[in-house]
Amino acid sequence: MSEVTPEAYGTVLITGSLSPLGQAIAKKLSAEGYRLLLHVRNDNEEARDFAQSLGSVLLIRGDLSDPASLRNIADIAIDKGVDILINNAAVFRPVALDSPAYEDQWRAIMEVNITAPFLLSRLIGLDICRRNKMMGKTQTGHIICISDAHSEEKIFPGYSPYLISKSALNSVVRSLAIELAPHVCVNAIAPGIIDTPSSIPSNINRTNLISHIPMRRLGVPDDVATAVSTLLKQTYCTGAVIPVDGGRSLI
Predict the structure, then answer these.
(1) Confidence tier at 8 by pLDDT (50, 70, 90)
(2) pLDDT-derived band at 231, boundaries 50, 70, 90
(3) How does the average pLDDT of the chain come out, rounded?
(4) What's the average model confidence in pLDDT over 205-216?
(5) What are the residues whose beta carbons fall under 8 Å from the beta carbon of 98, sequence distance 6 or more?
(6) Chain Cα centroid distance, residue 241
(7) Rounded-to-integer distance, Cα 8 and Cα 41, Å
(8) Taking 60 as the threshold, does the pLDDT of residue 83 lie above it?
(9) In a 3-state reduction of DSSP, which class is residue 186?
(10) CA separation, residue 37 to residues 93, 99, 118, 148, 169 (Å)
(11) What letters, b where the CB count within 10 A reaches 16 and e where it falls short, cover 205-219?
């Protein structure tokens, strides 16, 4: 596997790169010529095989809930000259309000879904600003957070910690868009129902689900990857939370 070098503008760190969305984004950006740094929680055979399939990428192993590990991920990315951060990693699971482990589950979700993307965005965003000022660059870096179209529109019982974390992530996007301007565009993609192995319970009527989506189909990971790619090709949109949900949030 080739080492990623920092010379070219367009070096991307993707967190949670082995998830269905992470893989789709990595494949899309790799095909478009971006240099990739892929964060994985475990450097196992699956991770190595995926990285090998993309060619010249660097795997960065780390636990996003651990402060020292998070800092190490940021340090490696900064050393490689990352210009683009895709905050994709997330914990998505229900937690019953009366669960004895509720507080532990709450912390676990918040650490990965909001604390990690904020701190990574802060560290990498400030480094992009520093490099641009030092070198007199006018190039624009990018931070894209993967949010959720349901975080502002609908509440699902049992998913309060997850939805609260994604709503907070939208606030992070809007705040950092101001603080990191004009050197970094900060935006969020808010997927709706994306058809992945773990996204739709087996007891859900898919036909009925699709009937409530104006585009009359479920989303696929490539829809999100395409939205990410499109955002990276512009330098004026910032602070936006863009739904990729087939219009479902409109009804």
Answers:
(1) very low
(2) very high
(3) 92
(4) 91
(5) none
(6) 13
(7) 26
(8) yes
(9) strand
(10) 26, 37, 18, 24, 22
(11) eeeeeeeebeeeebb
Distance CA 91, CA 232 (A): 25
Distance between CA 124 and CA 227 in Å, rounded? 22
Q: How far apart are CA 186 and CA 142, in angstroms?
A: 6
Rg (CA), the chain: 18
- Cβ atoms of 89 and 15 within 8 Å: the answer is yes
Coil vs helix vs strand at 190: strand
| Residue 7: band (very low, low, confident or very high) from pLDDT cuts 50, 70, 90 | very low
Count other Cβ atoms within 10 Å, centred on residue 63: 16
Q: From residue 130, how far is each of 180, 182, 216, 221 by CA, in Å?
A: 11, 12, 46, 34
Segment 167-171 long-range contacts (CB within 8 Å, at least 24 positions apart): 168/114, 169/87, 169/113, 169/114, 169/117, 169/145, 170/241
Residue with tokens 């809007």: 174
pLDDT at 164: 95
pTM, to two decimals: 0.93
Residues in Cβ contact with 48 at an 8 Å cutoff, skipping those fewer than 6 apart: 1, 59
**151 in helix, strand or coil?**
coil
Q: How far apart are CA 151 and CA 46, in angstroms?
A: 31
Written as six digits, the tokens of 182 are 């004009």
Superfamily of domain 11-250: NAD(P)-binding Rossmann-like Domain (3.40.50.720)
**Nearest-angstrom CA–CA distance, 241 and 58:** 29
